[in-house]
Design a protein that fits this description.
Low-confidence stretches: none
Bound molecules: NADP nicotinamide-adenine-dinucleotide phosphate
Helix content: 40-55%
Mean pLDDT: 97
CATH superfamily of the largest domain: NAD(P)-binding Rossmann-like Domain
Number of strands: 13
CATH architecture of the largest domain: 3-Layer(aba) Sandwich
CATH topology of the largest domain: Rossmann fold
Strand content: 15-25%
CATH class of the largest domain: Alpha Beta
Number of helices: 12
Number of domains: 2
Distance between the termini: 40 Å
Radius of gyration: 20 Å
Order of helices and strands: EHEHEHEHHEHEEHEEEHEEHHEHH
């Protein structure tokens, strides 16, 4: 029998899917990535990271329990990383039903398929810091022990999926863990996410292709990190003797305005001249400030992370330039 471990990654076409596939392929895993039915198999993230030929793609309807069962029965994966989700907080206010249905039922189907046809599979669920909602400043930083108070349809769906995962772990003894990740960025982030939008916009302004960048609430304070470093924790969580839940964050907090100013300063652009406020970009409910304590992941998983915000911005700009050059040459 082969010693090669199979890992299934749902949401392979997303930001984290590509970086996690790169990490696992580098560790010698056979990587199976799932796509929504009918989705194109030419995935820019995998091509950019030069790993498209190291990932086997499967179309899978995660809303269909029989299809999920069939794939797990056939593959008997050692590890399953569930990254597929409607992942935008903003979109979730416009599409609450689809967001809630997909982000919860897909998880239920995966957990139940593990229980019934692939009980040795270890499971990772992509939980989110959004689940905590507006935490009072006196209670920060966020820790694993704090209660959730989700403040968007997205956050509510992720909280439900989180507790489903915990419930299957406790009820059936499954190795099922949740990574509660804070915002993490890369050049593979979708265009509707604000840090990608700021870096793209600033590079376009720098190139003379655009004059202004419109942003919403710049006062929000967040804990931002680097996606390629965060996916490593997902893997570490599935190598432990006992499954558990972990916060994954930088521990550093800053405002969106600070981040945007850092980007413009790095690119030697005048922030006040080019950036304007657009009321239409405000959300129904906004989290004022969140940041976390990553001590548990450091202590128990041996995870190391030391990218401060300035170096993060420099790295993201360099990556975005590389991604643009690669896209232009395609
Ligand atoms: P992403 O880039 O938006 O990728 C989401 C993935 O889910 C894509 O592959 C997407 O497929 C798939 N998906 C969405 N709706 C689907 C559906 N109805 N059927 C099948 N697949 C569907 O997200 P990410 O940044 O990689 O994040 C990965 C996971 O971590 C998500 O669950 C997200 O909610 C969670 N998370 C992310 C962050 C963050 O800062 N990035 C923080 C905390 C938690 P298509 O390409 O076909 O749309």
């Amino acid at each position: 029998m082969s010693d090669t471990k199979t890992a299934i990654i749902t949401g392979i076409s997303g930001q984290d899917g590509a970086y996690l596939a790169q990490l696992l392929a580098g560790k010698g895993y056979r990587v199976v990535g799932t796509l929504r039915p009918g989705a194109a198999t030419d995935i820019p993230g995998l091509a950019f990271l030069d790993i498209a030929d190291r990932v086997e793609l499967e179309h899978l309807d995660l809303m269909n329990a029989d299809d999920v069962n069939a794939l797990l029965r056939q593959e008997q994966p050692a590890e399953i990383y569930n990254l597929a989700a409607q992942s935008s907080v903003g979109t979730s206010f416009g599409e609450p039903t689809d967001t809630f249905q997909f982000n919860t039922l897909s998880v239920q189907h995966l957990l139940d398929a593990i229980r019934s046809v692939s009980p040795t599979s270890r499971f990772y669920q992509a939980s989110s810091s959004e689940m905590f909602g507006n935490v009072g400043r006196d209670r920060l930083p966020i820790r694993e022990s704090m209660l959730f108070h989700p403040a968007s349809p997205y956050a509510v769906s992720k909280a439900a999926a989180h507790w489903l995962t915990v419930n299957y772990r406790e009820a059936y003894g499954m190795h099922a863990s949740c990574g509660i990740l804070f915002n993490h960025e890369s050049c593979l982030r979708r265009d509707n996410f604000v840090i990608k939008k700021i870096i793209s916009g600033a590079l376009d302004i720098r190139a003379g292709e655009q004059e202004r960048l419109e942003l919403g609430n710049l006062a929000v304070q967040r804990d931002w990190g680097y996606a390629p470093a965060y996916v490593e924790v997902m893997w570490r969580m599935l190598q432990t003797g006992t499954a558990d839940d972990y916060l994954v964050c930088s521990g550093e907090v800053g405002s969106l305005e600070d981040m945007a100013r850092l980007v413009f300063t790095e690119l030697e652009l005048d922030f006040d001249r080019h950036v304007s406020f657009n009321q239409a970009l405000l959300r129904n409910v906004e989290l004022d400030i969140i940041y976390g304590d990553n001590g548990k992941a450091r202590r128990e998983l041996g995870w190391e992370y030391d990218l401060d915000r300035r170096r993060l911005v420099q790295q993201l700009i360099a990556d975005e330039r590389a991604f643009r050059a690669w896209s232009a040459a395609r």
